[in-house]
Every structure is written in C-alpha cells, then in structure tokens.
Protein: MFS transporter
Organism: Pseudomonas flexibilis
Amino acid sequence: MSASHTLDISAPRVRWATRCGFFLAGFGLSVWAPLIPYVRERIPMSDATFGLLLLCVGAGSLSCMPLSGMLAARLGIRLASLGSLALLICALAIMALTDSIAWLGVALFAFGGTLGVLDILLNIQSLKVERALQRPLMSQFHGMFSLGTIAGAACLTALLTLGLSPALSTLLLVGLILVTTLAIRSGLLPDRAPAGGVMFARPTGVVLVVGLLCFVVYLAEGAILDWSAIYLTQETGMAMSLAGLGYASFAALVAIARLAGGPVVARLGTVRVVVIGSVLAATGLLLSLLASHWIVALIGYALCGLGCANISPVLISSLNHQKDMPVHLAVTAATTVGFAGVLAGPALMGFVAHHSSLTIAFAMVAALLLGMLFSTTRLPR
C-alpha cells in the first residue's frame, strides 16, 4: 500500500508545504547573487577562474536533476526534499564562510544540484496535489518560487545594508530556511512511486515535446537575465545604474502573472496558454528591439515576462495527462531538458552576438518563442 494513504493529499497543510517549498527554493537561489561581490573580495581570483566556478552551478544541476525521479521513488518526496534542503543549507553556509576556491567550487556544485533536485521533487508533489484536487495550481506554486527569489535577494541586501557581515547575514537566512523546513516537513508527501528502480528515462513522445518547449522558455529567461542590461545600455542609452530594471520588469510580471494566473489558466487550458503566452513573449521581445527609448524597452521585457510566466507551469501540469512515461520520471526528464535552456541561453546569445549583433540574438529568441506554436498540437489536453 502506498505511503500516501497516511497523509491526505487534499489537506491544506500539503498545499501550504508545497507553496513554502517553492518559496524556499527561490529564496535559497537568490541569496547567492548579493554574496558574489563579497566572495570575490574574500577569495582573490581572476574573472576566468570565477567563470569556471559559476559553471559548477549548472554542472551540479544537470548532474543531479536526472536522479530526482529515482530519489522520489526510493525515498519518497518528503525524505528526498528534506535531504535536498539540508544540503542547500550546508552549501549556502560554506559559500558564505569559506576562503578556499576548492570548497567554493564544491559548494556551488551542491548548490546547483540540490536546487535542481528540489525543483523536480516539488513539481512531482504539485502534480499529485493538482490531481487530487482537480484544480490547476501549478502557476500559483511557481509564483511562490518567483516571490522567494525577490524576498531572498531583498532580505540579504537589507541585512548587508544594516551593516551585518556577509557571513552573519547568510547564516541568519540559513536559519530561517531551516526553521521553515522543519515547519513544513509534515506536509511533504511520503509517497514512493511504484516504478522504483529506474534512475533516468529518456524522454519520448509528448514528454520530449514538453521538455523542448520548456527549453525555449528557459532560454528566453536566461537571455534576458544575462543580456538585457547590456542591450539597454548599448542600444537605448540607459544609465548603467538602472540597467538591472530590464530583468526586474520581466521578473516582476512573471511573479504577478503566476500568483494571479490560476483562474485564467483554468479557463484557457494548456494549449491556449502556450499559444497566447508565446505570442505575447515574442511580441514583448520585438518591442524591446524596436524601442528608441529604454522605457519602451522595459515595457517590452515586462510583456515578455507576462507571456512566459505560465507557459512552463501549464506544461509541467500537462504531464499528469500523458501515458508515455510514469509521471515522476516524465517530470524529471522534461525538467532536465528544459533546464538546459538556462545554461545554453547565455552562451548561444554570446555566440550569435559575437558573429552578428545582440539585436539579432534577441530576434532569434523571439523567433524560437513563435516557433512553439507549431508544437502545441502534440500537447495533452
């Protein structure tokens, strides 16, 4: 008998734990960004060395994410999630305290790996909750991740501004993550999937389609994160001190659209959300490229965020309705393929920009977003 019978999936504490889990994942992720200048100051290294260290985050994610389905099957979502959060706490503490490049690399690898695994485990739990309640909740759950990223960066920045040391500031937030983890542990599902021993299954059929569509959305997000500030300063004359507003406008609309998007998603359904979202996102990117003033470009990035916001949540939700693979393996495979877009986006943009221009690079991303329209017929209804 499945262990899930010991916990009512429709219970409010399960939804609360799922929301808080996504929030903690976003919170933990965003703590790293404000720490970067202090880490660079504490550990002398070249830009090239630091660039290699940053690759450890992506390497950790891509190495560990394929194990998520197996962990969910063998340990259950609860134990696997608690283990991931424990490792995330250790990684953040090491990143804040170490003076060793080697230990920093290990911590960054664990940081990326635990966040990748946690993301998949929480998506698996979310699908179970949606199935039990027969309600589309994935957008709201992913909205909590977006809210967590804003809160984490804001909290650490506030503590540093008050004069606390980077180490103490990080340890305080690590303590908050630990307390919240203990508070939500009973709401994490103890389920062990029946198809236990498979480590990773190659995505096929609709699962591959979902993964590739997620790849495009994540690629667009990575492109805006890493290149919007450069584009705004080079092409629209925006002051360097304001250049972060490009990604901020994108991220803010993503968070708002996800948190408020439940009724809209329920009314439109998966295919129409993907169609409308991809058109909006591509239109927003093209508007930013045609803008002669940076304010119009910011509106374009915000429109792109509005379009992208609910595409990946509804795509993950659609895996509940496919028959090609067990759901926990389908989520693992599709999310791993999709996450590769986060890593490929900046590199692809740089390659295209080097051989042509940044405008052409962003135009290619817009074209990929529009290309998603031709794959929607394969999606589960």
